[in-house]
Amino acid sequence: MRVKIFVSLKEGVLDPQGKAVERSLHSLGYGEVGEVRMGKYMELSLNLSSREEAEARVREMCARLLANPVIEDYRFEIQE
Amino acid sequence: MRVKIFVSLKEGVLDPQGKAVERSLHSLGYGEVGEVRMGKYMELSLNLSSREEAEARVREMCARLLANPVIEDYRFEIQE
Q1: Fewest CB atoms less than 10 Å from the CB: which of A18, A37, A48, B19?
Q2: In chain A, what are the domain boundaries?
């Protein structure tokens, strides 16, 4: 199984990296760009056969290590 | 328009951050995890009305600033 995990900052949490990218894009001439928010993207393979078990395990991994639930949201997609 | 951009390391490029996450997951008891690859995830808003123009502009932004085409691949999704 392949899992894609997307971690992004919660609404309202300051994102200085996103702001820096936004300013760089503006100075390169991309004035049409509005707000930029940065996040993390992870791909991992899982040696499990049950989709339910995979979902539960990935949710646990996100809560314990991959995302910081205080300031970040996550979502994931599982492909068989 | 909202754009989601996913940047990941090309196949074969060493990913020490992914390796570190992989080892941490193993030591937390997630032995079912195989290879982990880390990437970047960005969300941005665009003040454009044509989808074709948006695609061309985002492709250009990725090539010039958001991804390093030597070691990274990117893909993006545009939502109206």
Answers
A1: B19
A2: 2-79
> Between B33, B36, B64, which is nearest A28 by CB?
B64
List of chain A residues whose C-beta atoms are within 8 Å of the C-beta of residue B64 = 28
> A2-79 in CATH: which number?
3.30.1280.10
Query: Helix, strand, coil proportions of chain B in percent (round to 5)?
Result: 35, 40, 30
What is the rounded distance in angstroms from the CA atom of residue B40 to the CA atom of residue A59? 20
Calpha distance A76→B31 (Å, rounded): 19
pLDDT digits (tens, 9 = 90+) for B39-49: 999 999 999 99
- The predicted-structure confidence for A53-68, as pLDDT tens digits, reads as follows 999 999 999 999 999 9
Tell me whether residues B39 and A42 touch, CB distance under 8 A. yes
**A11: exposed, middle or buried (C-beta count within 10 Å: 0-12, 13-18, 19+)?**
exposed
Q: How far is A70 from chain B (nearest CA, A)?
A: 19
Task: Give me the mean pLDDT over the A2-15 stretch.
Answer: 96
Cβ A6–B39 below 8 Å, yes or no? no
